[in-house]
Design a protein that fits this description.
- It is built from one helix and 18 strands.
- The chain has 273 residues and is mainly β.
- The chain has two domains: 2-84, Immunoglobulins (Immunoglobulin-like), CATH 2.60.40; 95-266, Lipocalin (Beta Barrel).
- It starts with a strand and ends in a 7-residue tail after the last strand.
């Protein structure tokens, strides 16, 4: 006998810190219960038969209401109540997520001669995402990229990009990013605030982040997918090299568009391949 309910996110994850409040037809509170670690509420309180209103609340989520009918046996099965993130923005469940470099991409795009683009990517990098419980805006990300791993598909160009004119990879082998905050920006979208260290220069850089959802992988793990973009100005990081061609057009644009496609694995054990 009593009330049972399952509290889940849109992706089906348990909301373990949810609280269920039940009121009767007069609006009087008759029951209040907390979810367990599996996001399930089980309360043995026997309620008189009738119609009740169930309100589910959890820090970081918008409240949700559902109706419940208590039968003559005193049992009320609310079923599954789905909570949406406050502000409509979603993220994976709390915990540590490790970025899988084999199934992720870190790229940059620069204008060339003012009429086309040159694309490059870094082949060696690692990152950890920590999703905070409750107030998800406390989540953080840390990433390290090997500057010398730049690859644009042209050996001479890559050698130049590793030189002191650009990445200065010998003196500054690592590019790092450490987030300082997170702001909801819409449905499944966030702005990640953080500091980028490049060529030994530290500058604040915001990432426009989209959360694409979670799912099981073939190795028995759980993965979350993200897409993020940012714009950098080379002069902010002392990359002032340029060659001006005819009519004053720069050979290489001063603005870089960073494009990230990320898969993160729950926990720290990553499969190969």
């Amino acid at each position: 006998m009593g009330l049972t309910a399952r509290i889940r996110t849109r992706d089906g994850w348990a909301v373990s810190h949810a609280v269920v409040t039940v009121t009767d037809a007069t609006g009087t509170q008759v029951l209040r219960a907390a979810a367990d670690d599996e996001g399930t509420v089980r309360d043995a309180t026997v309620l008189p038969p009738g119609a009740y209103t169930v309100v589910v609340t959890a820090v970081g989520y918008a409240p949700a209401a559902a109706g419940a009918i208590v039968t003559a046996s005193g049992r009320a099965e609310v079923g599954t109540v789905t909570l949406a993130r406050a502000g409509g923005a979603e993220l994976p469940p709390p915990g540590t997520w490790t970025v899988d470099p084999a199934h992720s991409a870190v790229g940059a795009v620069a204008r060339h001669l003012g009429i086309s683009s040159v694309r490059g990517r870094f082949t060696e990098f690692g990152a950890t995402v920590r999703i905070a419980p409750g107030d998800v805006t406390g989540s953080r990300v840390e990433a390290v990229i090997r500057a010398a791993s730049i690859d644009t598909g042209n050996t001479a160009r890559d050698t130049h990009l590793r030189s002191a004119d650009f990445l200065d990879a010998e003196r500054h082998p690592e590019i790092t990013y450490r987030s300082t905050g997170l702001t909801a920006a819409g449905q499944d979208r966030w702005t990640v605030h953080g500091d980028l260290t490049l060529r030994g220069v530290v500058r604040p850089v915001d990432l426009d982040l989209s959360y694409l959802g979670t799912g099981a992988d073939p190795w028995g793990g759980t993965r979350a997918a993200f897409r993020a973009t940012a714009e950098l100005h080379r002069e902010d990081f002392a990359m002032n090299y340029n060659q001006v061609v005819q009519a004053g057009i720069a050979a290489i644009g001063t603005t870089l568009r960073v494009e990230l496609e990320v898969q993160a694995v729950q926990g720290a054990d990553l499969p190969l391949g």
